[in-house]
Every structure is written in C-alpha cells, then in structure tokens.
Write a structure and sequence with these properties.
Pfam families: 2OG-FeII_Oxy_3. With 203 residues, the protein is an alpha+beta fold. The chain contains four helices and 14 strands. The strands form three sheets. Strands 1-2-11-7-14-5-4-3 form an eight-stranded antiparallel β-sheet, covered by helices on one side. It has a four-stranded antiparallel β-sheet with strand order 6-12-9-10, with no helix packed on it. Bound molecules: 2-oxoglutaric acid and fe (ii) ion (FE2).
Length: 203
C-alpha cells in the first residue's frame, strides 16, 4: 500500500528513512468536515488509553464513535479505503477526537506494546495495529499540532488534511519511530477522525 498511497494525486511523503508518513491536504472538503464534527460531538466522552501509566493527564481529549450506519461514515470509510489501498475489512470503526483548550495526547505510539498488560485484550482477535489514518476536521486558533518526535517533524492541523503512517517496520515489528504527540490546543478547539488498521480482519 505504500506504492498505492505514494501514487495518489496530491499526496506528499515526509522524507525520513525511519518512518513511512504521507500527508494529503484537502482530502475532505469543509462541508464534510463540518458534518463529521457534529457526529463527533453527538457521542463524545473522555478518551481512554491502553496500558495506563499512572498519568491521568496523558490523554485529556474526548472520543466519539462515528455511527457505522451513517451515510457520512460509510462514504468516509470508502474514501479512505480507495485512497490508501488498505483492506477495509482490517479497519477498526472510525473514531473522532475532540481537544478543548489545554487538552493533548502526550507522546505515544498507536501500536499496542507486545509486553503490555492490555495486549491480549486489545490484539487477540485482529492482531496489532498496522496503519493509522487521521484527518483534521478543523484548525484550532493556536496549538494542536501533531509532533513526530523521532523524525523531528511537526504537522500543523488544517481542515481536511489527512495523515497516514505505517506503525510497523519493514520486517513487521512495531516501529518506535512512529512516536507522536497530539500537542496542547492553546486557543479554539481541535477535531480529528482516526482510523486504525489491523494485521487481521477486525470481525
Ligand atoms: O490529535 C493528534 O494530533 C494525534 C491523535 C493521536 O495520536 C491518536 O488519536 O492516536
Ligand atoms: Fe496516536
């Protein structure tokens, strides 16, 4: 899927030997983003983490599940599958995240730690996460960038901008260079959708 993604119109690959990361500006139009923000607002509640590390401020955002039967969700899923070439049967249901002023998701990886206490619960059926697809649904007035620390790259939120990265190394092992930080929103709010793909079918 790296070749498929790389060949999509408007896509840019962030130069790094350590991480496969693509950016596509204006993947979604403003109207679609507005509809998706409302869908996130309809179901949001405090976000959770796996392998709780004792830091209650580690992930302070809210999470909302998109309704899988909503035509907006169905269209978005199809658009992501066509764009990435990733097998939609391996995809988790799309989630939305909302960050208010001061909220963040501290540096983390999206794959589950093979030695973590929650690994069996999280990965027994579908396996670990492979790719992350994320789309910004708005632009906070200040803050809220996504920082990939290990490759020294900061991505600014922009309405409709997509990020897609591979959480694995070429040998299939989890890639620590995928470490990223959803930085604090300083003014306004920030909405994203996230779609994670797995090694095996989700259901
Ligand atoms: O909000 C961001 O910029 C990053 C979100 C994120 O890393 C996640 O939801 O796993
Ligand atoms: Fe993440």
């Amino acid at each position: 899927m790296t070749a498929h993604l790389a060949s999509q119109p408007g896509v840019q690959r962030v130069p790094s030997p350590k991480l496969t990361l693509f950016v596509r500006r204006a993947f979604l139009d403003a109207e679609t983003c507005t509809g998706l923000r409302a869908a996130v607002d309809a179901t949001r509640r405090p976000s959770t983490v796996s392998d709780f590390n004792g830091d209650r401020a580690f992930r302070t955002s809210e999470t909302g599940d998109l309704d899988p039967l909503d035509p907006l969700t169905i269209a978005l899923d199809a658009q992501i599958a066509a764009f990435t070439g990733l097998d939609p049967t391996h995809g988790e249901p799309i989630q939305g995240q909302r960050y208010a002023v001061g909220q963040e998701f501290k540096p983390h990886t999206d794959y589950f730690e093979p030695l973590g206490v929650d690994f069996d619960r999280d990965c027994r059926i579908a396996g670990n996460r492979t790719w992350t697809v994320m789309v910004y649904l708005n632009e906070p007035e200040a803050g809220g960038a996504t920082r990939f620390k290990a490759i020294d790259k900061i991505i600014q939120p922009e309405t409709g901008k997509l990020l897609a990265w591979n959480n694995r190394r070429p040998d299939g092992s989890p890639n620590p260079a995928s470490l990223h930080h959803g930085m604090k929103v300083r003014a306004g709010s920030k909405y994203v959708i996230t779609k994670w793909f797995r090694e095996r079918p989700w259901r």
